[in-house]
Amino acid sequence: MSPSAAPLAQGVKMSIINSKATLRLPLQALLSLLPTVLHPHIKTSRYHTSKSDTIVIQADGSRKQAANVEECYERLHRMIIEAGQRAVPGETSQSKKTRVKGLQKADNEARLRLKKSHSSKKAARRGGAIDG
Fold it and tell me: What is the pLDDT of residues 103-126, one digit of tens each?
């Protein structure tokens, strides 16, 4: 936990509130608990400090230290969930599957048309050479 300076209002005397929460986790301790597929995404997180190789999450949004500690843990949870979403692709929707099948079918038909026109061009050449 670290102190945070509260802004002083003009003409009003306020005390400094010590409510800032700092969560420090050694990266290796966290990675040992997570699947290997998440490791690169955790290492590129904005909370990762490469100098000390730790995850540092700070919160000072609330005047209550317990709420700030809870916020730190929620940010850690969110970071892990987002890493999982980036690492593991989601389920493809039915509309996207249908669209891709239509595109593949159109591509195949275009390929066959091109192939037939190329074939007929060659056949015309052969037919002209036999007659002449």
Answer: 999 999 999 999 999 999 988 888
pTM for this one? 0.59
What whole-number distance in Å separates Cα of residue 5 and Cα of residue 90?
Answer: 43
Structure tokens at 21: 């929460």
Nearest residue to 20 (alpha-carbon basis) of 77, 56, 64, 79: 64
End-to-end CA distance of the chain: 96
Q: Worst-scoring range by mean pLDDT, 5-14, 49-58, 80-89, 115-124? A: 5-14
